């Protein structure tokens, strides 16, 4: 499957307008945002776990990172409530599920294959002081990418010019970018060389962002 695979183009998807598609496991459904490959894929996806659903144990050969958007995600390493950011690098293994149901935003096969830095973070606990209506947390940084979480007050300007592409998930609130209104669940990908210039909406904005990573986009190596 190929979906939004031209990384030289701006892409905006309002995920709440996308259909839920069944995964191979009963009770686990997906809204696909970008994808290169079949069930083994370089993929960016919103995944919904019904109560008492789970995946069988598996190894993430290409690594995974995810944000818990609502509910509580669980595996043998613990419970991960809404607002948790998790990186499971290549070679890590788990059996994920959710007793009461949850929704996550997950990226697969987008790691440096030598990365072994596994961690979880409460994104809000990482936020720095307010500067011009913005509080920012740097969740992860390496030679390939920078991952941040941001909370913006109403009307605050959000300006990002990092090289290597920009990817945004609206976790809550809204913002306007290039004449488009992004709302909760909207996903935006800007190509390498294009800057982000946005203004937070009247309720403010909570934003997850990754920059610098698009030059490394490629199909999974299996």
TrEMBL record:
Domain of life: Bacteria
UniProt cross-references to Pfam families, sorted A to Z: Cupin_7
Domain ChrR-like cupin: from-to ranges: 9-111
Protein name: Cupin domain-containing protein
Species for this entry: Hoeflea prorocentri
């Amino acid at each position: 499957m190929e979906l939004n695979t031209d990384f030289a183009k701006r892409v905006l998807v309002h995920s709440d307008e996308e259909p839920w598609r069944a995964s191979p496991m009963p009770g686990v459904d997906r809204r696909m945002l970008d994808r290169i490959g079949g069930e083994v894929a370089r993929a960016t996806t919103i995944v919904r776990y019904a109560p008492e659903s789970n995946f069988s144990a598996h190894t993430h050969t290409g690594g995974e990172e995810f944000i818990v958007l609502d509910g509580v995600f669980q595996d043998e390493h613990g419970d991960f409530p809404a607002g948790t950011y998790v990186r499971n690098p290549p070679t890590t293994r788990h059996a994920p599920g959710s007793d009461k149901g949850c929704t996550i935003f997950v990226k697969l096969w987008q790691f440096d294959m030598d990365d072994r830095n596994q961690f979880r973070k409460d994104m809000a606990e990482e936020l720095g002081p307010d500067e011009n209506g913005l509080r920012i947390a740097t969740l992860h940084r390496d030679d390939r990418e920078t991952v941040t979480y941001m909370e913006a007050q109403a009307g605050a300007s959000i300006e990002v010019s990092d090289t290597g592409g920009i990817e945004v998930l609206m976790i809550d609130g809204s913002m306007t970018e290039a004449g488009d209104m992004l709302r909760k669940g909207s996903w935006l990908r800007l190509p390498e060389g294009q800057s982000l210039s946005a203004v937070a909406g009247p309720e403010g904005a909570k934003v997850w962002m990754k920059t610098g990573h698009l030059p490394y986009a490629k199909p999974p190596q299996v």
